[in-house]
Amino acid sequence: MMDMWNVGVDIGGTTIKLAFVTDDGLFVDKWEIPTNTSENGKHIAKDISYSIHTKIKENGHSLDHVRGIGLGAPGFIEMSTGFIYQAVNIGWKDYALKEELEHETGLPVIIDNDANIAAIGEMWLGAGKGSKDLLCVTLGTGVGGGVIAGGEVVHGITGMAGEIGHITVIPEGGSPCNCGKTGCLETVSSATGIRRLALEALNSRPSLGLLQTMYEENGDISTADIFNCAKEQDALSLRIVEKATFYLGFALANISMANNPEKIVIGGGVSRAGETLLEPVKRYFKQYALPRVYEATDIVIATLGNDAGILGAAWLAKNKL
Amino acid sequence: MMDMWNVGVDIGGTTIKLAFVTDDGLFVDKWEIPTNTSENGKHIAKDISYSIHTKIKENGHSLDHVRGIGLGAPGFIEMSTGFIYQAVNIGWKDYALKEELEHETGLPVIIDNDANIAAIGEMWLGAGKGSKDLLCVTLGTGVGGGVIAGGEVVHGITGMAGEIGHITVIPEGGSPCNCGKTGCLETVSSATGIRRLALEALNSRPSLGLLQTMYEENGDISTADIFNCAKEQDALSLRIVEKATFYLGFALANISMANNPEKIVIGGGVSRAGETLLEPVKRYFKQYALPRVYEATDIVIATLGNDAGILGAAWLAKNKL
To answer: Which ranges of the sequence are coiled-coil (chains A, B) (predicted)?
Structure first.
């Protein structure tokens, strides 16, 4: 008897990640194709379908043993219908992706946004394994999030649940955010935000120290530089890390007073800082959450990296189709 | 054929509210008994059992047609086991309430905390009717909350979900809260908090105006006075209402970026202020939430008053037993 396979698809602005995943969460095959954003992304469904069918043949598998496709995409998505209101990076607007992809592939399709499938992935096989009450945070260019309660993703009425990057942490006088507001968590705790805080400090009041030297030598610094220098006890870098993690710990504590998660899983580029990030985040979390909350919440680093999305998407196919 | 009845029980510090409720949410009978907190509340289960059985007989109903008991209590409760970790007002500590009450009554029992059953009540038959993504806020002595996502109460890992009164809205320099932290939402947006803000202002910089006059004449003011004077455009009262609703709108916006509710239902004594409360809360909510969130969220006043709890408890019996 052939195993049932689940197809996981994670659509990004430049590449589409695909995988065949067994019900046990094992990769049978994993590959990527480029994201063709021309003509408002109208070729993408065809590209995905062609790629999946080719790979099934290559693997000598039968379409009858493919349960269906779980898919994650960036943007505003209505999960129940698989309708994309808007995915700016891809070019879709009011696009019936689920319908289109089911038509192309002949397989059932289920869709959620990229942050939510990553959260599901970490819940299934990553740092959130075994936990049903989870908050996943991605610290990258922006700050993304996925909320899981009782083992189910919280979507909210317009699919905006988990948009924790736009929680306001500086109610007055904060920096402008891409969203049009000011003082969002994203402006101070994303990779971009942390780097901005450091550059502002480096430019406004040059000091002695590791980060300043690095900046003067290379003409630039990265978020990784800041955490590396903080690890070396560079005073300015420590100050920046304290500031970024203060706001993150504060926001996570406030979300946790509403949702009381068992685990908070932090992923994205910034999470590579590991303990240098975790220690102050936990400290500020504890400062702003009640004991019955902070004692029960484990704050950990994500473990699945770029695979979180396709695994979460495969989980959707396995459990929701 | 006899109707199936659900028993709703709402335990408070001074009275226990009870009701027989049909599957359609109609009251068959509704009554109260005093809460006997002597000997750490050990008589309460017996009192409830005796009261229910007496009323069933009085109503000429049969125990076979009572589905079971849904019950709400204040404190820290593990819903899955019906175990009370602590209910300070009642005297219970590490108390197996569900087991005890099932033993006494011979009926199946399901338990949740008082804030959650009130939220369920409003979802079933009140201001949240028809909505599956709900945030209920009670502005009374403290600030309580209940979070519902996808039609299910969010409990979190230690039942602390919905404790939004202890969301920190003033990260530095806020007033002390009963919980031991400072700057909690409860310190500025509860009835107690609003009155405190007003008294501080009245005592520190006496001004002309309606509230000041009232204070000097009566030697005291209530939260209702503040909202009444605000409605009459009293400058100080307006300032206090703006402050209290700023923090409330800000906190609700931040929770909504995580949970994206369809409705926010505001209950408790303060909610009697109606539009005088709602207008500024909505304004600040809009200031701090993204358009896709605030456009989809209806902020409304609770409609069930003191019945929300027993009705929510009856819903639990109906749907979870």
So the answer is: none
Percent of chain A with pLDDT over 90: 90
Structural class in CATH, domain B130-301: alpha beta
For A129-301, CATH number out of 1.25.40.10, 3.30.110.40, 3.40.50.1110, 3.30.420.40 equals 3.30.420.40
B88 in contact with chain A, both atoms CB, cutoff 8 A: no
The number of CA neighbours under 13 Å toward the Cβ of B44 is: 31
CB-neighbour burial class of residue A164 (10 A; exposed 0-12, middle 13-18, buried 19+): buried
* Rounded CA separation B55/B31 (Å): 9
Instruction: With cut-offs at 50, 70 and 90, classify the pLDDT of residue B1.
Output: low
pLDDT confidence of B86, banded at 50, 70, 90?
confident
DSSP string, A97-133: HHHHHHHHHSS-EEEEEHHHHHHHHHHHHSTTTT-SS
| Tokens (6 digits) for B31 | 């009554």
Tokens of A123: 């819940």
Q: Do B288 and A159 touch (CB under 8 A)?
A: no
Half-sphere exposure in the Cβ direction for A94 (13 Å, CA): 0
Contact B121, B304 (CB under 8 A): yes
Smallest CA–CA separation between A47 and chain B, in Å?
Answer: 31
Q: Measured between alpha carbons, how far is residue A132 from residues A8, A79, A261, B151, B214 in Å?
A: 21, 20, 8, 17, 53
Predicted confidence (pLDDT) at residue A222 exceeds the cutoff of 90: yes
Q: What is the identity of the amino acid at A75?
A: G
Task: Give the DSSP letter of residue A260.
Answer: -
Return the pLDDT at A1. 59
Query: Which CATH topology does A5-121+307-320 take?
Result: Nucleotidyltransferase; domain 5 (3.30.420)
Residues of chain A with CATH 3.30.420.40: 5-121+307-320, 129-301
Sequence-ordered strand ranges (E) for chain A: 5-11, 15-22, 27-34, 66-73, 76-78, 83-87, 92-95, 109-113, 134-139, 143-149, 152-153, 263-267, 298-301
Contact B158 A253 (CB under 8 A): no
Q: Do B156 and A145 touch (CB under 8 A)?
A: no
CA A303 to CA A37: how far, in whole Å?
A: 30
Q: Where in chain B is the domain with CATH 3.30.420.40?
A: 5-121+307-320, 130-301
